[in-house]
Amino acid sequence: MSIRPWIIVEPPDSRGLRRVTIGGETVGSAWSPTELRKILGRLGYPENMDLDDPASVCWRGGDSRAWPDRAWRRRSTMLLMVAGLLVSMVFNAVIGWPDASGALTFAQRITGVLFVLSGVVLGIAAIASLDYWGRRHFKASGAVVIFGAIIVLATDGLLLLLWFEEREYTRYLLVYLPALCWSVWAISILVCKKSWKGMPQPKRFAAGVVATVLLTAVSLAYSTMYQPASAPMHFTLKAEFGKAWQDNRLPFLHVPLTLYMKNTGGIPVYIVNDIYTVRGRVAVYSLEEGDPAAEWRESVGRQGAREGEAELYVGQPNYTTVSSGRFYESGSSLDVGQEYALKRVFQLPRNVGYDVLSVALQISYMRKDRGRLDVEEFGFPHVSWNEHEGRYYCEPAICGEQLVYRGRVRHNNNLINVTRKPRYVTAVWSPGGRFISSISSVPYRFSGVGDYREERRELQRYGAARSRADSAISVAELLRSAGV
C-alpha cells in the first residue's frame, strides 16, 4: 500500500498556470516555483521545503522545472488589452455625454446614452481582462473582454465610415483609427484563445451580442444619417406701414412701421441674421403703351442685378434706401410658438418725391435640433472698419461699414463633430442692405472666396434657411392719412 503525498501540483494549462491541491482541495494556482512556495507558506509549510521530495509533493504533467508561463508576454498582452479598453471607454463617454445630456431630439439622446453605456461596458471589460489574464476567478471574464473588443470595433468602424464622407483631419482621428486597429488585434487574439469558453450558455451570449450590435447599429444609423423632415419650419413674418402723421414744428411726416415674427413650426431655431429695409421709389410715368419687356431689361441693367420691374405705364424706376436696421438680436433663439414684434418710426419730408414706399423684412435662421451655436462668441459683432479687428478688417472704401458675427457651431449628433473639422456660422450685416449668412470650415475672408459647395451642404445639414416678408404703400396714401 503506497502513501499518497498531500501536495499535488497539476499539469500546466494553456497559460502555464499550475493548480495546487492538498487533500483533494484546491488551495491556489502558481505561475512559478516562487508563487508555489508563497502558497505553501501561507498554509504553514516551511519556506525551504524540498519541492522535489516525492514524499511531500506529487508533480503531474511535468516536474518542478515545467513552468511554461512567459510572464512578460502575458503581462504585456494584458496591459495592452486594459489600455485599449480604458482609452475607448473614455472616448465613448466623451462622444456620448453631450448628446445624452443636451440633445434636443429623442433619437440623438438615445445615441448618446448608448455611447455612455458602451463606455461603462468597456470599463467592466477592462477589469475583466485583468482577471482573464490572471487567475480567472470568473468564468465569464473572457466573454466580457471579447464583447468589449467587439464594441470598440463597431463604434470606431462607424466613426471611420463617417470620416470617409468628408476625409477631413481632426485630432480625434488619432484616437479612433489606432483604436480600430487595436480592436482587430484584440479580437484575433481572443478568438484564437476561444475566450468565451467557460461562459454559461454561450449560444445565448452570442445571440445577445449579435442583437445588441444590430440594435446599436440601427439606432446610430437612424440618428446619424436620417435628417428629420417630419417637423418642417414655418414662420409668420409681417412688415406693415401704419397711419402717418405730420410734425407741426418740422416739415416732416412720421411714418410708423410694424415688424412681426412668429415661429409657427415645430422646431426652435437660432436667428442668425436679420434686416429690414425701407426703400422709396421714383419712376417715370407715361400714358403711352410701351414694351414692358424692354422696360424690364432696362431696369435689370440699371440695377445691376437679376431682378427688376416691368409695368406698362411706369418706367425707369429708381430706389433709394430710406431706413434700414436690425430686427432681432443675432444668435438669439426663437422657440416654438414664440413671437416677436418691433415698432419703428421713420421720417419723410412732406414734399418727398417718392411715389411708393416698400419695406422688406428678411431673416436667416438655423434649426436648433441640428446644431448648437456658441451664442456668447457669435453674439459679439466685429466691426469691419476697425484695424484692430484683424482678419475682420476691410478698408471702408472697399467694403463699406459692416458688422460681422462669427461663432462655432456644433452638430447635435456628436458623431459628426468628432469626424469633421470645426464649422463656423458667419453673418454679415450693413445698413446698406448687405445681408449674408453662411456655414463653413474655412477662415473668414472679405474677398468672398470659399467653397460654395461646402457652404450649401452645411446650410442643408444644419437646417439653415431664409424667410422674407414684403409690403408696399403709396406715398399719396400716407400723405392723405396725415392730412396733408
UniProtKB/TrEMBL annotation:
Organism for this UniProt entry: Streptomyces galilaeus
Name recorded for this polypeptide: DUF4395 domain-containing protein
Record flagged with keyword Transmembrane helix: yes
This protein's UniProt keywords: Membrane, Transmembrane, Transmembrane helix
TM spans (from-to): 78-98, 110-130, 142-164, 170-192, 204-225
